[in-house]
Amino acid sequence: MNAHDEMLERMRGANPLPDVDMITDGQMAEMTLQVEQARRMGEDLPPFSLEPTKPKIRWWRPAAVFAASLLAAVAVIGGVSLLRGGESDVADAPASITTVTASATTTVTASATTMPEPPDGWNPILASTVAGVPPQQAACPTGADPSKPGPEGQNVPIPPGDDHAGAFDRHLGKMIYVDIFGQTWTFDVCTNTWEQLDTAGEAIDASLVYDIDSDLTIALGPGEFSVYDAAANEWTRPDLDVIGGSRPEGFWGVAYDPVSGMVLTTSGDAVWAFDVETARLTRIGAVPTGTQLAGYVAELDRLVFVGFDTILVDPRSGETTTAGKAPPYGEYGYGFFEAAGTVFMSRYLGPVLGVCGFDPGTLAWSRCYDEAPPEIGPFSSKVGDSINNRVILTQSTRTALDVWTLDLATGSTHEVVTSGVIPTLDLAWEPVLATTRANAAPEPAICPAGTDPNEPGSSLQQRPGTPQGDQNGTFDRRTGHIVYVDVASQTWTFDVCTNTWHNVDPEGNPFTGSLVSLVYDVDSDVTIAFADSRISVYDSKAEAWTNPQVVAVGGSVLEWFEAAAYDPISGLVLTASADQIWAFDVATGTLTRVGSVPLRGRLAGYVFDLDRLVFVADQTTVLVDPRSGEATTLATGALPFAGWGDYAFFEAGGTVFMGAGEGAGCGFDPDTLAWDLCFPEVSPPIRGFAARVADPINGRVVLIHRSELLRDVWGFDLATGQMIQLLEPGT
Amino acid sequence: MQTGLAEERFQEIYRQHQRQVLGYFLRRTDATSARDGASETFLVAWRRIADVPTGQGTLPWLYGVSRRVLANQRRGRDRYTALGRKLIGAGALDEPSAEVVVLRRAEDTEMLNAVARLRPEDQEILRLTVWEELPHAQVAEVIGTSAHAVTQRLHRITKQLARDLGRPGRQIGGGDPS
Known about the structure:
The structure holds two protein chains of two kinds.
Chain A: H1 3-13, H2 25-41, H3 61-74, H4 102-108, E1 112-115, H5 125-128, E2 166-169, E3 174-178, E4 184-188, E5 193-196, E6 207-211, E7 216-221, E8 224-229, E9 234-236, E10 241-243, E11 252-257, E12 262-267, E13 270-275, E14 280-286, E15 292-297, E16 302-306, E17 309-313, E18 320-325, E19 334-339, E20 342-349, E21 352-359, E22 364-369, E23 379-385, E24 390-395, E25 403-407, E26 413-417, H6 432-435, E27 473-476, E28 481-485, E29 491-495, E30 500-504, E31 516-521, E32 526-531, E33 534-539, E34 544-546, E35 551-553, E36 564-567, E37 572-577, E38 580-585, E39 590-596, E40 602-607, E41 612-617, E42 620-624, E43 631-633, E44 648-652, E45 655-659, E46 665-669, E47 674-679, E48 689-695, E49 700-705, E50 713-717, E51 723-727
Parallel strand pairs in A: 10-14, 35-39
Antiparallel strand pairs in A: 1-18, 2-3, 3-4, 4-5, 6-7, 7-8, 8-9, 11-12, 12-13, 13-14, 15-16, 16-17, 17-18, 19-20, 20-21, 21-22, 23-24, 24-25, 25-26, 27-28, 28-29, 29-30, 31-32, 32-33, 33-34, 36-37, 37-38, 38-39, 40-41, 41-42, 42-43, 44-45, 45-46, 46-47, 48-49, 49-50, 50-51
Chain B: H1 3-26, H2 31-47, H3 58-88, H4 98-101, H5 106-116, H6 120-130, H7 136-143, H8 147-166
Helix pairs in contact in B: 1-2, 1-3, 2-3, 3-7, 6-7, 6-8, 7-8
């Protein structure tokens, strides 16, 4: 019996319940009783899939029609307020579907005018579909104090960039929130406590909205949706049935329509309605020119679009009404959210957060709270909390996420999560680096006879412009040239034997980006360029760039790639993005999520003698076994230079070097497991270059200066620690 | 689905899989939590009856729900236990799991201790394969990965167990990088 079978056999022997027939009838009966009791208790919350097919009868529909008649008579005296408040279930219901008529709005405010513009053949689906019975809204337990800050030091999510990262699940009484990794959290608005969930399925990088009648949270991502069922703690991705147009690539703005029970969004110039029960995404009409969807106002039963002006759109007919100017947008961006049955805009007025709501009574942006403390913001999400009549503001940085609330009754703000801790990502290690093997590496090029690599190149030669990143070059082992991409995405090579630049005129161009990392893939004899969150491939034999269709496996690329390293064992190229390690296989175009970056650090490179990846976090060095994911935090691994953000890492001589401060650089010694391969201080210091590329032919590191004025090139001799100039500054 | 049909379908699912689902929990937690967990799993199945796959897909779906129910139970218990420890002293609320109670031999203890040192998902792959006797394709459905990945990971898991139970681990800088 081999070890594999032996372990399985031992595991079998350790089974505490080898046969389910050992379960007694009494145990089964107890469970059956409990299941039936639970099902009976849940009768007030029937399974959504057992709902009658649409059109459904909504209990308040007749009341709304009655109210409409009443309001037609008394609209001018503000009769809309009669239907405000009351039972929690009606809080989001529109007071009337016919309140805003041309005559009514003209009476309420002289600035409101009706444009008889049923644009673009408005699809009446929002008039013919009726929402189901919404679930009961949760309430805070007796004695709970929602203004009391949550536990100190609690784990908090890392916010994504989206304004709508959260949505309030009124049935659960919690905000559903998706972090930058697509992991799901809840925020309990009664205890101000975050909880990370272990959900089935993954959310997508998206805007969230709570679908009240279906009791589901919808995430609207690029070209697709995912749906979160809190009862099952599961995300699913419906196969969208797109009607009335081609599948949009992305969505902008989101609103829930409580009358039809559909989620509304826009893409380009089209308004879309999504029915979660049928997975139908229907194009219903055109976005008013020059506006964006801000949300839905229940009292008016109108969608609010905002551009220079505020445009109200009747979701049933498409009829539009102008309702005055938009509020000031602020200097540092803005966003919209829904709360208390209307739409709010948040924006930054100087350093101060301003929040202004659209008042359905006056048809103006007059519910303003512009006195928020200056320390508030920026926020990754603004979510209306209908239980406590406040707004949950989640403040966003990469290292901490604090939560503030804005009380809509008093305008007061409270910090309710003050010292959150972002937990380390702990992904299961995908063994792709253990199961893939590289081909034998080709022999490296050598300098031709008669060349002198120490002879500086001509200072008159053309040279590349300065790019933004710090890993813009890589050594092509076969040609013996450095491949380099400059600020204009021009491709250059630098001959390390003659110290000469050559401007290549390749077929195709790489993706451009503010952060470019190049790495030579020895196994495939191509150069891989990671530009922001995209990948390009350069074949020096064909002098051609291609931008392959990359398939991400195991997760989504959520942020830009921060580094690149070649793994000579697997022949795959490694990079990191949003605290996740990825392996790229150029042969298949597959980008596999391998695991998590330890301690939220930075990928420095690969050490051949140890077969370990080196990560640096604060002043700590962590080695990670690429095959198993086993991480070792080194007691000896304190960094030689202090100060974050001023590091430069590069690989040379089979290990990783760093340059920082005014020092020359220190390499990681695989024997002592410390950064003690240090060289004396040199000028210029090793940091501050657009690329530091190991040149194995001459045993040195080639440093290409970042300065646009100089653009000189230096060589750092790994044997002597001397710096020599390989190319003088240009004119 | 009509209510009558839904009820019929639920009864069928319950009759066919009640023992397996309760067994799943009994292998992983104490009897009371097992009953609660199994009940919650079937409640989810009732609420999501139209989504429950038919045929051979039913049991992996139920195990997938069970896994998440168990995870939530454990999170809640961990919090409760931590709070209890703080209030009345360490260990006071510890309740032995079924694995501890039913242990038959010291060898099993050693094995289960080694399993507990695996990553949670690896533990689950191993248990579903050996204890629930699911084929790799169905384990993959529960875990949310491919059958191939389950096969690969299972080999890695047994290799790690073998090393943990008998062979010394590899040292940094100890040679063969493979």
